[in-house]
Amino acid sequence: MKTAGVALAAMALSLAAGEAIGAAGQQPPPAADHHLHIQGPEVTAELRKAAARSPERFERLDRQMLETRTLEDALRTLDQAHIRQGVLLSEAYMFASRFSTLPPAEATRLTRIENAATVAAARASGGRLLAFIGINPLSDFAMDELRHWACEPGVTGIKVQLGNSGFDPRSPDQVETLARVFAFARDNRLAIVAHVRSDADYPASDVDTFIEKILPFAGDSPVQIAHGGGSGRLDSAAVAAIARYTDAIRHRKPGTKNLVFDVALIVVDEEADPALISAYSAQMREIGIKRFVFGSDWPTLYTPARYDRLLQSRLQLTHREWMRLFNNRAPYFRRGARHRHAACANPA
């Protein structure tokens, strides 16, 4: 594993390369990739079992999804894209997912191992990477896992993948359970990255449930909505969802003060309908480009460098808007460890 000194040297090279690109008159690289995944051998084994059971779910995905990835891999892929910083979203939620067949005790044990590996990688990155632990918020051990990590150095926030978790926004009990996780994040000054869309069927009422009954519990904690409010490709439901967020932000509803959206996989090759792209771009302007951040979801489909090129080729933004988007960093980058750990004397 790289030492902090080596990582900082690599960051300096990345910065120099980025400055050279900007000097050449090209679009400068994003300041940060807000949506990256490494994974330990335990997640790799779980994903390989899932791929054997349902190969059709993995047909289009990059083969790196089925390989163990480390800190060095993450830093290398950022360097190739000339990106300064990144956000590691732990895949520990996989062990208690609706697709997993692991017994609860084993899921609990492996969740801790995977979260520990992600946090350790961020700590060893020399400041280049931030870590979000991953949980299934509906699992019996979710709150114990949160309490374990609440005050640990190197933990920036919590990643929840509601589709993977089997979350049902029409279940009052599950809504209440998820709201408790958001309240815990608020009380412990943890940010949240949420893959909100839980199924292909995604009516506006499900979006409203999240906005009205869950998001307010985050208070002023930063919340990042993954995939721009969708689930990894742009369709009419994703455009309708971002419009609901637009309305919530316009009315300054609770939980929206530090709400941002990553643009990971909102464009997926030829599947991006120009009319939907135009509608989505209009909603981005309505919300304000300042609330959008770059993310690639590496390695699901693309490297950060390749997704940067694809996004610029399809998303309809002006040069000034691209400059703003690529310079944006989520509010949790500004908070810092000292601010967050001030709340950790007695975690809930």
From TrEMBL:
Ranges of residues in domain Amidohydrolase-related: 80-315
Gene3D superfamilies hit by this protein: Metal-dependent hydrolases
Alphabetical keyword list: Lyase, Signal
Signal peptide: 1-22
InterPro entries: ACMSD (IPR032465), Amidohydro-rel (IPR006680), Metal_Hydrolase (IPR032466)
Taxonomy, superkingdom: Bacteria
Protein name: Amidohydrolase
